[in-house]
Amino acid sequence: MILIGRSSWGPPRQWKLWSLPRTALAYVLAIDVIAVTITTVAVRSTLVGPNSGVRHSEWVAFVVLAVASTLHLECARGIERRRETAANTSPHTNLKCLWIFAALLLLPLSLVIPLVVLAYAYSWFRVYGRTVAHRKVFSAATYILASAAAAAVLRAGGLLTEPRVPTGFWSLLVVMAAAGTWWLVNYALVIGAILLASPEATAREALGELSDQLVVCAGLGLGVAIAAVQSSYPWVVPVLMVTVMALHRDLLLPQYQRAAGTDSKTGLATSSYWASAVPAELARADTLRSTVGLLMLDLDRFKEINDTYGHPAGDEALRAVGEAIRAEVRHGDLVARVGGDELAVLLPGASETEVMEIAERIRERLVSLTVSVGTTNGGKAAITGVPASFGAAIYPHVANTMDQLILAADDALLTAKRAGRNQIVAALPSPPAVTDHAENAENADRADRADRAEQSERSDSADHHVSD
Q1: Is 125 helix (H, G, I), strand (E, B) or coil?
Q2: Catalytically annotated residues
Q3: Cα torsion 396, 401, 406, 408: sign
Q4: Rounded mean pLDDT of the chain?
Q5: What is each CA distance from 243 to 71, 212, 215, 247, 252, in whole angstroms?
Q6: Which of 263-272, 381-390, 433-442 has the lowest mean pLDDT?
């Protein structure tokens, strides 16, 4: 999300909040105002309503959850700092939700909201450092709106008094519906902010990774378990902290895997990841008696884009090319950036016909691709058409090893460029070298027979002269 960034303290007019696009600014401020309104109504209902006041047991539960949440954030401080820095145009997933949802089942909304504020205030000062303040305020506001929506679902389902932990089938359905509502509202609000604040972000980037959202769902489920334990056996809650920390650390594994195998400029696979994937696919093809297609493509006259509009514009064009290619390949195909403007597509199980059809679809899409890029003078320019030359090769029809396959595709790519660019050339099988032992033996046998025939002719000639 583009709202991320570090800043020093400054007067209000210098806040980075005002640098957001107008629609994003209005959206963020509107969510903040709604959250403040919900907070006011919740506090008023607790102080003035027929069941006004907070019970002693609820204050105890609030303190326990506040302490547990703070300890969790402190223990995961290094993890959270690295994860927030890695986030850009996708939702930043965290596990604060498990403590907030547990509080939602145990406490009135007027105490859930202070727990949200406490968690984000502590994160701002202790975990993230002096990051942009409006981002943390907005995140807290989305949590408040999500909690209010989930609380409404709980009340609509008949769970009117705390604790509202599931004790039967119906109450379980209501709690699950509330958890789903909490996730959906928070997720939708964050996606809306990303798309409005980062117009260049694609919907796919804004939605983020499914695995991250599954972790959030797991956190909500763990929140239900914590609420159930807290309502009956509060001293067991510290034991669950071990599970929470293990789950939190597992959040880093898929993130690091993606970072290690993803090119930062294009979002495609890196050359090192691609180099490790090719032999694995060739080995699998040998086992399945299948094929592997390989496309090598080089953008035609890409240097002119960099020279004309600048290297940042070239990066934008390259990113758009990567997205266009991924839109035309099959699920399971691997698209990688293997050089500056050289890309590769690995097509497991593809026949020569399929490889050529996919290459032609990509070629046509790149020819008609229009990319809006920033220029060196701060303006905008539209690049129409980013054509490419293609070299195609099929394993094992063209080559028997990874090196031979890549060389064959590279040679075909070079032929396409020499033939005028913006075209596809398929590699042909190389004629086999005459190194077969049987063939060598046959040649030796031929030579031996020729020698014997020549000797026989000489012998016959000598006999003829003697008889004369």
Answers
A1: helix
A2: 341
A3: negative
A4: 78
A5: 14, 17, 13, 6, 15
A6: 433-442
Tokens of 142: 């989305």
Helices marked H in 342-436:
352-367, 402-418
CATH homologous superfamily for the domain 271-426:
Reverse transcriptase/Diguanylate cyclase domain (3.30.70.270)
Strands 424-426 and 388-395: parallel
CB-based contacts of 330, cutoff 8 Å, min separation 6: 347, 350, 358
Residues 6+ apart with CB under 8 A from 236: 229
* Residue that is written with structure tokens 């007019």 in the block: 13
In whole angstroms, give the CA distance from residue 395 to residue 387: 26
- pTM recorded for the entire structure: 0.53
Q: Kindly report, residue by residue over 223-255, the tens digit of the pLDDT.
A: 888 888 887 776 666 666 666 666 655 555 555
Check pLDDT > 50 for residue 439: no
Q: Is the peptide bond before 279 cis (omega within 30 degrees of 0)?
A: no
C-alpha 278/C-alpha 446 separation (Å) is 44
Start and end residues for every CATH 3.30.70.270 domain found in the chain:
271-426
